[in-house]
Amino acid sequence: MDDGSSQQQPPKRVVVCGGGIIGVCTAYYLAKKGAIVTLIERSSIAGAASGKAGAFLALHMCDDGPLSSLARASFNLHRSLAEELNGSLSYGYCPLTTLKVTVDESKPASESHILPPWVDGGVKSEEIIGTTDTTAQIHPQLFTRALLAKAVEEYGVEVVMEKVESVAVEGDGVVVMVDGYGAIRGDAVVLALGPWTSKLTEVSSKFKVIGKKVHSIVLEPKDGDMITPHGIFATYYPGQGMGPIDPDFFPRPTSDVYICGPSVEVEVPDEPDLVFPDEESIQVLKRVAGIVSSYLKEENVKVQSEQAGLMPCTDDELPIMGEIPGMKHCYVASGHGYWGILFGPASGVAMAELVLDGHASIVDLGPFSPTRFVGTKI
């Protein structure tokens, strides 16, 4: 029997900085667990890498390492969210058969019984690396915005579209200074600003999140009905002594095909809107697309998008998730790299558990703690 000696604690007020998939998932699960959440984003929701990613999901491709449990938990959360949010219609959730292929113009194509008809270039080898049970695809911007819409409508998340200027510990809480808005106080703050996380002077000396630029194009084939849901990881050998190129092809249910190339580390600009594609890289993607598939040749497609995004990465290729050393009540969730869209839901759950419960139960956050960088030279 309740004798009245214990009182329910008031809900925590948590500020989440960053409107990409990691920030939105964190805000969603914080609010779902009962926190009062304010999300701050200076540009647009999923306007940077989260809106320009391939959004390929894989259950098993991070096995045999510290990312395995994160990937597997998040893949299953993506599947359940797709049922909850009608993802097949609202953001293009689609299970895929996934293949790895090698394309060499200098050699004749080999006969294949596993390639989809639209992959009709000079493929000399192929291998199935994922099935509809283990790999899938979403449209990342539509997913992020759909999840935020639910967070706002059902759990009362407040969205502030301004730039975070500074973060500081104040007493038993935090204060976030926001350009054009003023101070937002809370019991805790989560920094999910992608490669811009390290732009905050308060954390720039503690760890580094770098930006790797990835170019991509989105093509709408004239014969879109021929494009089946097969994810393609290609290695293309141009010949003439040139090194291979590794483009990825991800068809979407919206009858278009997303194609991206390799990444390269670049300096992070002051604003996400200052990330521009390089024309030469875009032209290479267009050419390779036409070599891998005649359906994707320039004369057979409409170019929907030519773009570039900055993947947030770390030197050890592991995310940074945890309380920031020397900054109580201040947390970071960034550096998720190539698999950021996959890792979004489980990262959100883990951060919500850490902030509200003091520890994460969905995954072990130990390998991802920012304390691993203490004492290292930034």
From TrEMBL:
One Gene Ontology cellular component annotation held by this UniProt entry: cytoplasm
Keywords assigned by UniProt, alphabetized: Oxidoreductase
GO molecular function: oxidoreductase activity
Domain annotation FAD dependent oxidoreductase: ranges: 13-354
Keyword Repeat listed: no
Gene3D superfamilies for this protein: D-Amino Acid Oxidase, subunit A, domain 2, FAD/NAD(P)-binding domain
Key word Oxidoreductase present: yes
InterPro entries documented for this protein: FAD-dep_OxRdtase (IPR006076), FAD/NAD-bd_sf (IPR036188)
PANTHER family to which the protein is assigned, alphabetical: OXIDOREDUCTASE TDA3-RELATED, SARCOSINE DEHYDROGENASE-RELATED
Name of the protein this chain belongs to: FAD/NAD(P)-binding domain-containing protein
Species of origin: Artemisia annua (Sweet wormwood)
Highest classification ranks of the organism: Eukaryota, Viridiplantae, Streptophyta, Embryophyta, Tracheophyta
